[in-house]
Design brief:
single chain; mainly alpha; 3 helices
């Protein structure tokens, strides 16, 4: 598979994931989808040869996802229902 085709597929996946995040109904689901966005961005950076940026994206994406989940669980999902 040519690199240009792979880059195009990854960019299309990032656009699709961004649209899914915008139209997501649950905050927790949006955070999980955001984790996928970070993974695709990391793969794209790796394909274009920026391994250091890919590593940084992996760390930042993981840490921010964990923080988002902790924040959502601590305040409750106001849009999706009541806190249990």
């Amino acid at each position: 598979m040519p690199v240009v085709l792979l880059e195009g597929l990854l960019l299309m996946a990032m656009i699709a994931i961004a649209v899914a995040i915008i139209f997501g109904r649950s905050l927790l689901a949006c955070v999980i989808i955001y984790c996928g966005f970070s993974l695709i961005a990391m793969l794209l950076y790796t394909v274009v040869g920026a391994a250091d940026v890919a590593f940084t994206e992996a760390i930042i994406g993981t840490v921010s996802t964990v923080y988002f989940v902790i924040a959502i669980k601590s305040i409750g999902d106001k849009k999706g229902g009541t806190r249990r």
